[in-house]
Design brief:
This protein is of the alpha/beta class. The protein is about 40% helix and about 10% strand. Strands 1-7-6-5-4-2-3 form a 7-stranded mixed β-sheet, sandwiched between helices. Strands 8-9-11-10 form a 4-stranded antiparallel β-sheet. Strand 2 (about 175), helix 8 and strand 3 (about 195-200) form a beta-alpha-beta unit. The radius of gyration is 23 Å and the shape is globular. The protein binds pyridoxal-5'-phosphate.
């Protein structure tokens, strides 16, 4: 089938894709939340292709049944948002429009991206002094923020890392209580090294950093420029570091404060929980995700800094044929980028502040309801108070292998998907609520599935 043929039948192809999307979305509440990986035959690259409709049919026949209901209401693994109707519509159009938002000039798309960053600032209550960029997710946002922090720290020692490299820069201390694994990954990618991460003890029974221990550690650095990483929503329990107190310490010791709020930044949407982010405006850089609680499709994340000049020193790209430094390509690892802002713009315009307040509050209430159910069960043990949208619990008496077997049975059952972790040395289980379509009706289904998947030892 030729490309010319598909060109003539473009609308039919889009209709077929629409039908496939509708069928998938319609199956989300009954489709298994997750699948165990299966080995399938390899695909073969043909001499002559089968055309778009043929490819779509082949995909559906071979793979569609094995897609997870990860955008559905009971996929509670990792921190997995779904996609709101407005965001899905926006994302489809991103492909059709196919705009490159690297540089200003020939499309309004870059303006929309800047406007969307403004809408996000308003959602999170950030002052205009924070300039942002769209990236692929929180890992990349952490990478961009830490690269900017590294530029700052080295500059204080008289070195421009972006120009001269790291060769003469002494190790830059990075301190945090419960940094997400992606912070450490970013340190590896930045050539700062995973081992530079200094883990400061947490408060007893918490994932929040012990401020006195942090104070002592910063004092011991004797004025060396350091980077402090605060967690606004730790991935295991949803606990928050005291950002305002950490900002005070950073001011005292002249350190850079980075806040990783991949999902926790959305506490700003809920007046009852916004206090968890007190001091956020004092951060030097901030990470958050779109594909988590904003409920836009993968992949979407945002980084904000109060230091655009430093940020651009790192990511600037110069060539005679490229634009000037006001272009967005000077803020991100990529030069060319997709019009990732559109799904975010659509969903923010569609549902507004109140829509996100309702969504965030509902997810937190559902997490509390699941937590209560766990506490009432004789088979499970709640390991941490439910502070936000994450429930961290254990299967009583289970070692890691038994916990894994339980999670595998749960996945096979398909009603709910949960992921493992370790909390206070115990093999634990996490349930994270961040999907717009999860409702109170899902809680009894989840609790029933949990009880029914226990095999009495
Ligand atoms: C606090 C935190 N930071 C960073 C990340 C990494 O996010 P992503 O997978 O979008 O890169 C996560 C993912 O769960 C997270 O919870």
């Amino acid at each position: 089938m030729s490309l010319q043929y598909d060109h003539q039948h473009f609308n039919d192809i889009l209709e077929a894709a629409h039908a496939a999307a509708s069928a998938f979305l319609g199956s989300l509440s009954t489709r298994p939340a997750g699948h165990t990986l299966q080995s399938l035959s390899h695909d073969v690259l043909r001499e002559d292709g089968i055309g778009a409709q043929g490819a779509l049919t082949a995909f559906r026949e071979k793979y569609e049944d094995l897609l997870a209901a990860s955008p559905g209401p009971r996929y509670l693994g990792f921190v997995t948002g779904g996609s709101t109707p407005a965001a899905v519509a926006g994302d489809w159009l991103v492909s059709a429009y196919d705009q490159n938002v690297g540089s200003d000039g020939d499309s309004i798309a870059t303006t929309v991206e800047r406007e969307t960053l403004g809408l996000l600032r308003a959602l999170f209550g950030l002052p205009e002094s924070f300039e942002g960029a769209f990236v692929t997710g929180a890992t990349q946002a952490n990478f961009v923020a830490l690269a900017t922090a590294r530029q700052w720290a080295a500059e204080r020692q008289g070195i421009d890392v972006a120009e001269q490299g790291l060769w003469n820069v002494p190790p830059i201390p990075v301190l945090g209580g419960s940094p997400h694994a992606s912070i450490v990954k970013a340190l590896a990618m930045l050539g700062m090294g995973r081992q530079v991460m200094e883990y400061i003890p947490s408060l007893p029974g918490r994932m929040a950093v012990d401020l006195q221990a942090l104070d002592r550690q910063l004092a011991a650095l004797g004025g060396m420029p350091a980077i402090v990483v605060a967690s606004a929503g730790d991935v295991n329990t949803g606990d928050f570091d005291d950002i305002a107190a950490m900002a005070d310490l950073c001011k005292t010791y002249g350190a850079w404060l980075h806040v990783d709020g991949a999902f926790g930044l959305f506490a700003a949407c809920d007046p009852a929980r916004a206090h968890l982010l007190h001091g956020l405006d004092l951060a030097d850089s901030i990470t958050t995700d779109g594909h988590k609680w904003l409920n836009v499709p993968y992949d979407s994340g945002f980084v904000f800094t109060r230091h655009l000049a430093l940020h651009q020193q790192v990511f600037k790209v110069t060539a005679a044929y490229l634009g000037d430094t006001s272009d967005l390509s000077h803020r991100t690892p990529e030069d060319s980028r997709r019009f990732r802002a559109l799904p975010a713009w659509m969903t923010l315009m569609a549902y507004g502040k109140n829509g996100y307040r309702e969504l965030v509050t509902r997810c937190c209430t559902l997490a509390q309801q699941l937590g209560q159910g766990i506490e009432q069960s004789s088979h499970f043990e709640l390991l941490a108070p439910v502070r936000l949208n994450i429930v961290c619990f254990a299967l009583r008496g289970a070692n890691a292998e038994q916990r894994n077997q339980f999670l595998a049975r749960l996945k096979e059952d398909g009603r709910v998907l949960l992921t493992p972790t370790l909390f206070a040395g115990k093999p634990a289980i996490r349930a994270a609520f961040s999907n717009w379509s999860t409702s109170e009706e899902d809680i009894p289904v989840i609790l029933e599935a949990l009880e029914e998947c226990i095999v009495t030892r």
